Amino acid sequence: MRTASPATAPDGGLRTTGWPVFVRLVLSTLVLALLYLALCWYAGRSIPPGTEVAGVSVGGLTQEQAAARVADQLTQVRRTPVRVSWPGGLKRVEPAVLGLSVDAPASVAGLAEFTLDPRRVWDRLTQATHRPGVVVLDTATADAVLAAWAREIDRAPVQAAIVFSGGTVQATAPQEGRTLDVPATREALVASWPGDGDVPAVLRVVAPAVPPVRYQEALDTVATPAVAGPLTVRSGGASAVLPPEVFAPALRMQTQGDTLVLQVDTAQFLAAARQVMPNVEAAPVDASVRIPAGQAPTPAVQPAVPGWRVQTAGVAEVVRVALVASERTALLPVSSLAPAVPTEQVAAWEIRERLAESPVPVDPVGLPDQVVVAPGQGYTWSAPAHESIEAVSSVATAAGLSVTRDLGADTVTITNPGARGVLLQVDRSVVPARFAVWGRAAAD
Question: Which of 111, 188, 252, 390 would you call most buried, defined as having the most Cβ atoms within 10 angstroms of its Cβ?
């Protein structure tokens, strides 16, 4: 009888074919795959023990059972008011009023689903999961409620204010305001609920235009010194001391950027200055000729006097600087005003001789004691008495002047047609009064 002997390899060992080895490898792989699939099924058939969703224990349940339990257990949570607080205020409202709710199916999604991901399978077999729950927020509902609260919460900042009243300083310190940040508060609600029923409202600080440090600096270094004492004002040839209650109404502290700046109302300041100093401005005085009273009748030239006008464009700055300076003297900028008739011109007329004179039976009421009539100019006199008109007209004509009489109005206009000025004089120190015309006699 023949027996089969195993085949030998060239090296003397046993020879095996490749096909049985491959079959065994495939079978082993299939077995392992089936075992892993079974493990994945086992890991995904229920939620791992100890798992919590929004504080509700769902371990050992299927995903559908877990969603139902979460929805049931959170019924009380949905009824528990949310407390939204801020400094000085608190609101208690049900979550639904704010548009808050929990999506139970979304909260448990993926806790008991079949998966081949080895990391997720390992996590389900070795550790429990703690989820906060998926919070759903109706943005329109939340924003409507928060906007209504904002009208109660919002507070405008108190702006710095410094005013001058009765020569003293009245000051209001700045304070921060606040406003409810609706988007940020909405996000805080979603992040905190349902685990925490206390949610601080998110407030934004609204700073005043002038911060406290700038306000205090303006008060201490500008406003208070400005009315700390009287102010000396000089204008042209005039000078006066103004007490604070006189010039303070012209002062203002205005906001510029982040500080308060002293402003001076020029028109109001000059009006206040004139109460104490009427000659803040002075009109020029023309040169003239006068015969001094009580002396021998000798005409004398009265020199012209220049005037001055305040240059308003520079007043505010001059006063502002003076109010915070140690000297407290404001030298107002002025421009000189020249007289229309200078001294030299009147002196050249050489008015020193009587050209004509005569008694006046009736006092020429309305005619000044002395009046100068420049070359080519005239003087109109309203004369109530006929006799005085005749006497004055006669003397004026004799002196070479032109006389025009308006009979209906009883007025007389005396015109000087010459090249030099003349002086009309009524001497009322004698009786009857005498009317004379002074000038320079024509050369022979």
Answer: 111
